[in-house]
Amino acid sequence: MVIENYPRPDFKREDWTDLNGEWDFSFDEPVFDRKIQVPFCYQSEMSGIGDTGVHHIVWYRKEFVVEKGRLSGKSLLLKFGAVDYEAEVYINQTYAGGHRGGHTPFEAEITGLVSEGKNIITVKVMDYSDADKPRGKQTWTGENFACWYTPTTGIWQSVWLEYAGKPYIKRIKATPDLERNEALCEIFISTMERVTAEVFFHSLPAEGGMEMDLGSLKISCENGYGKGILALPDLDLRRDQLTWTPETPNLIEMEVNIQNDKVTSYFGLRSVCISNGRILLNGEVLYQRLVLDQATGVKAFSRLPMKRPSGMIFCFQRKWGLMGPENIRKLKIQDITTGPINWDFLYGERCQAVIGIQTVL
Description:
CATH class of the largest domain: Mainly Beta
Shape: globular
Radius of gyration: 22 Å
CATH architecture of the largest domain: Sandwich
Structural class: mainly beta
Number of strands: 26
Number of domains: 3
Strand content: 35-45%
CATH superfamily of the largest domain: Galactose-binding domain-like
Order of helices and strands: EEEEEEEEEEEEEEEEEEEEEEEEEHHHE
Distance between the termini: 13 Å
Helix content: under 10%
Number of helices: 3
CATH topology of the largest domain: Jelly Rolls
């Protein structure tokens, strides 16, 4: 079963194409004599292969179509949630980009490499058994031992295309300041030229709350960057309508526009600090009682196999005395909400302190 929903709800474009599903695949050489289900690693059953043998080089290939006129005035971005460990990406046999590191996302701007009609993505992945590279609990000896388990090789998070504008928004960063009741908004764009970005803010309240327009900003971007500060409205000390807590996980949504590109994101208005050896959330002591779950399974490994893991995830409320699971790092936001890496904490934004504990798959 393939996850069909959008992979990045914290950085969302409306015009996108899901590339998860069946890809051509081969070990060692690009002969493509097998099929694999992306985004599951070849070692897992969910990939359709389930080979736990060591293969240091694997190859992927997939055909995709650019519809006539769809790319007019647009930039085409190819995005990978994660590929373990080192990837080389080719579009129509031309090198498009690469990435090193098994747990971080990357992208390639491929507008000039595609044509209307059929196009081909080829990915070469190298995952050598180096004991000194970041690997989590993946074994490097070829055998499982102690707490070192079967490796994850190749594509193991979602792959998709985004049709962005020209220029386009590369990244958004929001930094809340609870004491001042404001938020710093930073925008990173693809052009060095001066461009004006317009940002609209509105609340995404917890259940039972009331949505509110929170204002807008016009931000001048130059040399690929711009920033501005949003002063949030005075709510007559009813700050609980906007602030994020585990009990009331209110969010603030941002819609960022530059020319013909639009991205939506969100953040929580909160403060976190350490004082006298204690963690303070919004100025109040937050005692944490946590649990560890490996969040792996024999069928899908670190990648959950379902769109919404209800039935395989048991949810417990804070009243049971548990605050959050270690496995948030592996569940990823797209496995839990509407849709890899650095979005893990945002999963907790909407869970109302509900924690998921995965059963054996």
